[in-house]
């Protein structure tokens, strides 16, 4: 039976940062977005409010900014090697993130079978963010279920990789989970835990597990 590997983005594939912070860095608005990350992490605002506030910060955003943020971000090592190996095993790999889909979907080019993020309007922005398109921890599970249906697997065939509270719901419904550079609240409920900057090493923990 094939397996589906589900990867978080912020703090997981990206080391110690988030896609919105890296995007905002290109606009000189890093500090403002770090503050928003802290607010959403503390539960002071929800994902829809977060999305609306970063959307407002990004009034001058262009595709060139997004490309520079993606290329310059501190990615874990060997992401593409892991996804090539997963594909070679006949398994599937997908990214599910609360970050903007226009950033997340760039990982299709690195070998992910699918990449899902919060829906933002086209860049440059001329429309507001639709809160209905913003993902949450619970929505990650719904996306995972749709991916299971798409690839002909079940939750029992899934492996999840994540780092924070937004991954708790998903970790709770899959049999194998890897806390990657995670806080103690997530590592306590995961089946495996990894600290470091090489995705292959995290993948090795579950590579043979079935």
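-> sequence recovered:
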């Amino acid at each position: 039976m094939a397996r589906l590997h589900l990867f978080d983005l912020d703090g997981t594939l990206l080391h110690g940062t988030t896609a919105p912070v890296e995007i905002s860095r290109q606009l000189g608005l890093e500090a403002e977005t770090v503050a928003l990350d802290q607010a959403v992490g503390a539960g002071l605002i929800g994902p829809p409010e977060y999305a609306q506030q970063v959307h407002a910060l990004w009034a001058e955003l262009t595709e060139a900014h997004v490309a520079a943020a993606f290329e310059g971000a501190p990615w874990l090592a060997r992401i593409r090697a892991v996804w090539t190996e997963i594909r070679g095993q006949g398994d599937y790999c997908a990214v599910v993130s609360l970050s903007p889909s226009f950033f997340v979907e760039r990982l299709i080019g690195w070998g992910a079978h699918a990449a899902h993020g919060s829906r933002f309007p086209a860049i440059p922005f001329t429309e507001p963010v639709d809160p209905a398109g913003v993902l949450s921890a619970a929505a990650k599970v719904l996306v995972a279920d749709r991916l299971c249906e798409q690839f002909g697997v079940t939750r029992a065939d899934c492996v999840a990789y994540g780092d924070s509270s937004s991954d708790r719901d998903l970790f709770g419904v899959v049999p194998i989970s890897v806390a990657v550079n995670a806080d103690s609240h997530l590592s306590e409920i995961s089946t495996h835990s990894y600290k470091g900057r090489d995705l292959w090493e995290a993948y090795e923990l579950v590579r043979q597990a079935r």
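Residues 5 and 93 are 5 Å apart (CA to CA).
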